[in-house]
Every structure is written in structure tokens, then in C-alpha cells.
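User: two proteins, same treatment. go.

Assistant:
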Amino acid sequence: MSTTDQAKQVYILLRWPLIMYGIIFGFYIGYVKTHGKYLWFSWHPFFMMLSYIGLSSNAALIKKIGGYENTRTHGIYMIISILLSSFAWYVIYSNKEMFKRKHLTTIHGKLGVAIMISYFMLGIFGAIALNPDWGLFRSNKTMRLVHKVFGRLSTAAAWFCCLLGRLL
């Protein structure tokens, strides 16, 4: 079995469980942690989990399959992930402002901001440098490797940050 076939099988096997995990646990954290009430805050864990667990992980899995269309789909998934996580950041920022609480006081908050910055940097770099149609470095193996490794580290950190948020 080829590497591409293996990557397809892994993607097919994990795509829906990842999305469902992001939705279910995002809802669970937002609803149960708020004592059975769905509040403005509740959108923060929901969209962060959907973004970083559901979409970003699927984006990485589909990119691993390779090919032009999968590369474009990877970029689209990541753009949507960045938009959803940006909304989730707005929710938590405005919620803290509403209740006059300090920002970035926990490792979860500080790591979360670092992850958001890394995802924005990866997104801008990927869109400009690695776009399969006109990217400046689309055929440069070193740049692609740096993007891949930095992306994997950022995604691992995002999963860890989601876990931290769940535990707090």
C-alpha cells in the first residue's frame, strides 16, 4: 500500500471523529462548565475546539494525502480555522472586559495567544509562499519542511492548550 493510500485511509478514518470531538467537547466545556447555562463565554471553548481539533487536524491530514486539490483544501480549512479561533478569541476578550477581569493571567491564556500568533504567521506564510498556484516558494522543500514542522508544533500546542482549558 502506498503512502498516499495510507494517508487517505487515516483521513477517512479520523475526519469525522475529530470534528465530532471538537463539537461535543466544545459544547460540553461551554455548557457544563457554566453549570448548565449557555453563556457568551460558551462560544469560546466551542469554537476553539472546533477550530483547533476539528478543522486544523483535518487540514493536516488532508495535506498529507498530497496533490493540488488537497493542498488547496488544506489552505481553505486553515483559513476557516483561523477565522473561527479569532471569533473565539473575541468572545473571551469581550467576556473578560464585560466582567472587568485581567487578561492573560494563566498559562492557558498566554499559550493561547502564542498559538494564535503562530497560526496567523503560518497562514500568511502558507498563502504567500506555498500557494500551489503562485506561491513564491511553492517548490522549495526547505520552506515546505519548516512550514510543516512549525505547523505540527503549533497544532500539538493547540491541543495541549485545549486540554488546559478543559482542566481549568
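Protein 2:
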Amino acid sequence: MSKRGWRSISYMAHYVTIRRASASKVGNIAYTAQLRTDMSYALRRAAQAGRTAFVLKLLDRGDDIDSAEDDGITALMFAAEGGHIDVVMLLIQYRADVHAVDVDGLTALELAEVNGHKDIADLMRAAGMNKNG
């Protein structure tokens, strides 16, 4: 990912943190819920880009590890599909839902296999995941 793209992810996470703090003071539950989704967007983009340190930072601040895009793709699925084994290991360690499925019924394990990431598929199997859930 280019520096410009990475800066966009960093800016978004910072911007959402500021907006989230403002929402907490207002106490608007619906607004806070919407911001929570935005925070998780940054987590999914960081996982997709293979940015382990940034994923860790977002998880440590409380981002929703199992949030999904409209098509059901989670951070774990993005990382597995992209071959980012360090991010996959981190997300499994933080207890990401390894059985989540996207709108096509595919799991992170299947996405890793389809994209030729045998090492990630083996890691996920060792963590107790299989194709049947």
C-alpha cells in the first residue's frame, strides 16, 4: 500500500477516535453505534493491508474484531485472503470468529485456500478450524 493510502487509514482511525469521544459526551447511542462501525472499518482496512502493528493498536483500543462489510467479509477474512499470516495469527489470538461466513458462504479458511495461502490454511486448521465450521 502506498504511503498515501496508509495515511488515509491512519487519519480515519484518528478522526473516528475524536468523533467517538465527542459522541460519548453527547450520549447519543445511535451516533456512537455508527462511529463504532466506522472504527471497525479502519481495522478491516489495516488487516487487508497486512499492517500488523496497526491492527494491534486498533484491537487494543477496542475496535470490534468481528465486524463485517456489507458482504460479510471480516478482518480475519481480509487477512487470510491477502496472505497476511501475522495478522491472521493476531486476530486468532484476540479470538476473532473463525467460523464467520461471507455472503457466498465462505470462511476465512476457504478464502486462504482459494487464494493459495496454504500456510494460513494450515495455521487455521491447527487452531481448530475446519471447512465444516
